[in-house]
Design brief:
By secondary structure, this protein is of the alpha/beta class. The chain is about 35% helix and about 25% strand. GO terms for molecular function: imidazoleglycerol-phosphate synthase activity; lyase activity.
Length: about 260
């Protein structure tokens, strides 16, 4: 039984810039990613995810120098993804301080690498990330930072990822990305019902009530988000923030 859900801010980087997207398109520059990590340190968050959204589509490997700088500053558990195509890269990321390596495009294009990474480093270290959007009335998987739609249902890919040995699944709604209007509860529940491993929801979080809803109603084990942790107010002023443990307890996300 998962007694305490994890709340996970997600920081996106592209060419070393920390950014936030809307539906994988329009982007806002947020500043220095290492500085954002330092602020999250003081907020006492459960976990932090760093995703390089430009690496795969630009055929770049992970920026190990930047990722090492981030890991050296972070006090919380870290996961990272983007551009991971080899077992050697998985090894390097784990060696510089990341607890989990997030794999997205590789779930489709390099399943043997995923299986071998699980065998070498354990299922707890390998996270499957599935980006989904509604195409012609049904969900489809999308890879390469939203560039390529795959004729595969996200539920089917989630089951495959579990069979590959991935210890956790992130389900991300592209349609909800950056909108701050709530998670796609139908999508999250579909994935959570299909697999036995923990499921992390991302895409659409606008406030604490959304975190509570996706955990309690859709069965997510963790609620991740971008915009609600980096923007403030209707004008979306840049402000790195996170709800306190007291606020999450009072809202019913955490139970005493």
């Amino acid at each position: 039984m998962f007694t305490r859900p994890r709340i996970i801010p997600v920081l996106l980087i592209d060419d070393r810039d920390c950014i936030k997207t809307v539906q994988f398109g329009e982007r806002t520059y947020l500043g220095d990613v290492v500085n954002a990590v330092k602020i999250f340190n003081r907020k006492g968050i459960d976990e932090l995810a760093i995703l390089d959204i430009g690496a795969t589509k630009n055929h770049r490997e992970p920026d190990f120098e930047l990722l090492k700088d981030i890991a050296s500053e972070a006090f919380m558990p870290l996961s990272c993804g983007g551009g991971v195509t080899t077992i050697e890269q998985v090894h390097r990321l784990l060696a510089i301080g990341y607890e989990k390596v997030v794999i997205n495009t590789g779930l489709i294009k390099n399943q043997e690498m995923v299986r071998e990474s699980v065998r070498l480093y354990g299922s707890q270290s390998i996270v499957a990330s599935i980006d989904a959007k509604i195409v012609d009335g049904d969900y489809k998987c999308v890879i390469c930072d939203g560039q390529e739609v795959i004729n595969k249902h996200p539920r089917d890919l989630a089951i495959e990822a579990e069979e590959m040995g991935c210890g956790e699944i992130i389900i991300n709604s592209i349609d909800r990305d950056g909108m701050m209007r709530g998670y796609d509860l139908k999508l999250v529940k579909m994935i959570a019902d299909a697999v036995k491993v923990p499921v992390t929801a991302i895409g659409g979080a606008g406030g604490i009530k959304d975190l509570r809803q996706v955990i309690q109603e859709a069965g997510a084990h963790a609620a991740a988000g971008g915009s609600m942790f980096v923007f403030y107010g209707k004008l979306r002023a840049v402000l790195i923030t996170a709800p306190s443990e007291k606020e999450l307890t009072e809202a019913g996300v955490y139970h005493e």
